[in-house]
Write a structure and sequence with these properties.
Elements: E1 2-8, E2 11-17, E3 22-25, H1 39-48, H2 56-60, E4 65-71, H3 79-93, E5 98-104, H4 113-120, H5 122-127, E6 129-132, E7 141-146, E8 152-156, H6 157-160, E9 164-170, E10 173-174, E11 178-179, H7 193-199, H8 202-206, H9 219-230, E12 233-241, E13 247-253, H10 257-270, E14 271-273, E15 277-283, H11 293-304, E16 307-316, H12 326-333, H13 338-347, H14 357-369, E17 371-375, H15 380-385, E18 389-391, H16 394-405, E19 412-415, E20 422-424
Parallel strand pairs: 3-19, 4-5, 4-9, 5-6, 9-12, 14-20, 15-16, 15-19, 16-17, 17-18
Antiparallel strand pairs: 1-2, 7-8, 10-11, 12-13
Helix pairs in contact: 1-3, 11-14, 13-14
Length: about 425
């Protein structure tokens, strides 16, 4: 018997798999990677050796309005490490620079003052100018052109009118943009609701290139990079992080060239080949990423890439906050025919995209491929509303999975952290 301690909320759940039935374990090397320098040293070194641009301190010289786009409370970016070094670099040649930190919420709710303090530390919150982006604040938006796909590029005025636009962030696998970081600081980060919804349209989500770890041919990435260039995103500092959210790699410079180097490092540590199996166990990496069902779709897509058609995905996600989105929940509760649901999505024009449609579309896609048994703290009715089978322990989940697969020679693939791997089909 092979034992696995799998992340679940702030703790773990134990899974026991008979070795004869274990097809493989798909695991990222990121969490065990030992960097040769501290996070602060890595960031400083990246700032001193940018890729494709001059040093930021030289670029900042003489600039009047400098805007630093920063990730929001939903992303585990170690801004308390990055931001002080980034601000010091800007002020090295421009000590009186007018700097605004623009928090890139995308379509998320506004970041609270307490969350800002937790993210940056009190010194930055008390002494720096911080503005939280609001995608619906039309008075502070400006149109700057068209996306390659035809959508309007409408961005936060602060970003669009900056003399020098900089962004900090992190690079991780992303389940339809390929990777987070880089160009995503602009779109969706500081874009209007209209622009984000257009970019996340059903045709793009359905494109086979809009997948984890895929950039070539990805229409969502193409629009995002174009928007970043149109906004004149001059410089980025991005990190790759471990399970403790500490930087283990850092890149700085051009928003595309630096990002390419960062994602090449990431791929070298977390890309794994699919191991097809009848049953695939996955997680969302535990807290804070498994707080709701909506976010848990990300960890399920790793399992989707390796589960056999008609197989079973066992998803471990405590989801103490429930569904994570009213429209997401209601979409599945009110429509039991997944094929009809999917066709409804595909029939919508890009400008008709509705809130959370992209997440619902991806979730429906994987539900059409496999049965999902959901191990969580959620009410059974809520799990059923989302077309999944509830379970409250690994033992219960495995028994249900085996009865569904209904074969003696079933095979199991385990993915301890579904959001940290790129599963290559």
């Amino acid at each position: 018997m092979k034992e696995f301690l799998l992340p679940y909320g702030k703790g773990t759940l134990k899974a026991e798999i008979e070795e004869d039935h274990l097809a493989g374990v798909l695991q990222s090397e990121l969490h065990s990677y030992q960097a040769s320098e501290s996070g602060a040293e890595l960031v400083q070194d990246a700032l001193e050796h940018p890729i494709g641009t001059p040093r930021l301190c030289d670029m900042a010289e003489g600039k009047k309005k400098i805007v630093v786009i920063s990730s929001d409370h939903t992303r585990p970016v170690p801004s308390h490490i990055i931001m002080p070094l980034l601000l010091a670099e800007i002020r090295k040649e421009n000590p009186d620079a007018d700097i605004t930190i623009l928090v890139s919420t995308g379509l998320h709710r506004g970041t609270t003052k307490d969350e800002l303090r937790s993210k940056y530390g009190s010194d930055i919150v008390d002494h720096e100018k911080i503005i939280v982006h609001d995608c619906d604040d039309k008075d502070n938006m400006v149109y700057i052109g068209k996306l390659p796909s035809g959508g309007n590029i409408i961005l936060n005025r602060l970003a669009a009118e900056a003399d020098l636009l900089v962004a900090e962030g992190f690079i991780e696998p992303h389940f339809f943009a390929g990777f987070s970081g880089g160009r995503k600081s602009v779109l969706p980060g500081v874009a209007s609701r209209e622009t984000v919804m257009y970019n996340h349209n059903s045709g793009f989500i359905a494109d086979p290139h809009a997948r984890t770890g895929v950039i070539e041919g990805n229409p969502i990435h193409k629009d995002m990079l174009y928007a970043a260039r149109a906004a004149r995103l001059d410089f980025i500092i991005n990190v790759v992080i471990d399970s403790k959210h500490d930087p283990i790699y850092a890149v700085a410079g051009d928003c595309d060239l630096a990002h390419i180097q960062g994602r090449e490092f990431l791929v070298s540590k977390c890309q794994v080949d699919a191991v097809p199996a009848d049953i695939v166990i996955s997680t969302n990496g535990g807290y804070p990423l498994d707080q709701n069902m909506y976010q848990s779709v990300k960890g399920m897509t790793a399992a989707e890439a390796t589960v056999k058609k008609g197989g079973v995905i066992i998803m471990l996600s405590k989801a103490e906050d429930g569904d994570g989105g009213k429209s997401f929940h209601e979409t599945f509760r009110d429509e039991r025919d997944l094929n009809r649901m999917m066709q409804t999505f595909l029939d919508r024009k890009p400008e008709e995209t509705i809130v959370d449609q992209w997440q619902s579309q991806i979730f429906a896609r994987l539900l059409l491929k496999a049965t999902v048994i959901y191990v969580s703290s959620c009410d059974d009715q809520l799990v059923d509303d989302l077309h999944m089978i509830p379970a409250h322990s690994m033992e219960e989940a495995m028994e249900k999975a085996k009865s569904i697969v209904s074969k003696d020679d079933y095979q199991v693939t385990v993915i301890p952290d579904g959001v940290s791997v790129i599963v290559k089909e």
